Amino acid sequence: MKNKLIIILVIFSFITFCDKKKKQVVPIISSVENKKEAKVVVVTANPNANSSIGLNNPTTSQASNTPAVIPTVSEVEPVVQVSTTPNYTPPFTFDNTTTIPVIVTVNYSNGAPVPNCVVVITDPSQNNSTVFQQVTNSSGQTTGSIILPSTSTSVIVTVTVGSFTSQPAIIPLVVQVTENGVVANVSVTAIGNITLPIPPPTNPIPPMVDSDGDGVEDSKDAYPNDPTRTTIIRFPASGVNTLAFEDLFPDAGDADLNDYVIQFYNEEDLNAKGEIVEVRGAYQHVAKGAGYNHKLKLLFPTNLNISYQTTVTNADGIAQSSSQVSFVPTPTQLNEGLEILGDSSTTISSPNSHLGQIYQPGHVSKVKIKFNTPVARISIGNAPYNVYMNVISTGHDVYFPNKYFNANGTDRFLDSNGFPWAIMVPGVWAWPLESQDIRNASVTGYPKFQSWASSKGVYDKDWFNTVTSGKVFPIPSTYSPLLAFINQIDQKNTTLISLLLLSVGISVSYLIRKRIFA
């Protein structure tokens, strides 16, 4: 009987441990994944265009059905206003992300503003990761922007007032708009006002638990004991994205996008106002299919007050000579660009651009930028900010499109064929082999790329997921020190579970053996 009890206790402990681990890593989206689409008010730039969904007058509609017992914030779903511009076609800049402004005033159903409430926007396509979190000011207002993969189809909005959090509102990123009797699907161009469909409470709302007094409840505060930080925004939400450059600027390159390739991620700390307090990043050099040499740099406005730190290691994590740099940049140094990775002739040992080459990833730079005076998002833009390639061999800098324009309004960083010298691709991206033009149907490793490009991003938004083997460099998705660093917590969990399984096996085997030979 005693032996049986020991076996039961061991197995129960193992199941309990696994259940706790499961609760820690499974995204909490089950409560909203089957929910109906939220009530949305669509505001268009054309006064003759009307929404075919949502409420034209949410206050009146809700007021007419107000029950005798007024619900609390936690029992209602907010009505969210979105904006569209039916006749506007934004410039196509080969961007695989979408940036949407957030200009929100939170009101109760009678129009009274809701100050000191927390507006949270998450992306269900990225495990419900937070893409926006701010506390409204005394007028109930917040402003900022969100950056999403172009494949995202919706976001989720919640509002927290005191200790109450509203029901989640699922907001589609493409809505139906009727213009001159014609119904069309139009992309959302801004997220606007939020209405809580209840009148202001007559009784004080129960206070929230806010240890550092920054206005954000501890359960929603990434730094519950630090009043200067409340939110962590990661780009991408998990894993890495890939930066790929052509280096013959201002001449057109061969469009193989392998001259200088970087894997990276960024992480931001924001305060309750949504201002950026600190940026962290990791960047790894993974290909150099070119004879020219390069540097990876970052350009910030010269009026910022920041502290900058980089630590460079090789692919095995060994620090390089003079690898750690820490200083407060002057306006002149900011204007010259902050160096992330140095001369590419020294940061990687293999081109990694031909079949048969053994993949040898290069150096990793870990960057920390502290904003001694917090800045608004508009000051530096969304991640990866204004990162660029400096071509040492020619003295030219290569930026992403849609940042610099000639006097006639043409984009300086789109060539005569409208093709960029720099592109960002989601995930661990296998770049084309040397001289394999990604646009050329006969040699491309990405057969849907040209459809995406020629449709200006309308079709095949996930073009990078369809790959032809033998035409791209066979990069192992699991062999990356940068990814290993990102996944180290999961690896630790796996090790713990393996050790526990081993312990259970040994214990059970011992008890069974003892029982048999007793």
Radius of gyration: 26 Å
**Main beta-sheet strand count, sense and barrel state:** 8 strands, antiparallel
Number of helices: 8
Oligomer type: single chain
Question: How large a portion of the residues is in β-strands, by DSSP E?
Answer: 25-35%
Mean pLDDT: 84
Number of strands: 24
The helix/strand class is alpha+beta
Query: Which parts are unreliable, with pLDDT below 50 for 5 consecutive residues or more?
Result: 7-37, 46-67, 492-498, 508-518
Range of helix content? 10-25%
Overall spatial form: globular
Euclidean distance between termini CA atoms: 14 Å
Task: Please characterize this protein's 3D structure.
It contains eight helices and 24 strands. 17% of the residues lie in helices and 31% in strands. Residues 7-37, 46-67, 492-498 and 508-518 have low confidence and may be disordered. The strands form four sheets. Strands 13, 14, 15, 16, 18, 19, 21 and 24 form an eight-stranded antiparallel beta sheet that branches. Strands 1, 2, 3, 4, 7, 11 and 12 form a seven-stranded mixed beta sheet that branches. It is an alpha+beta fold.
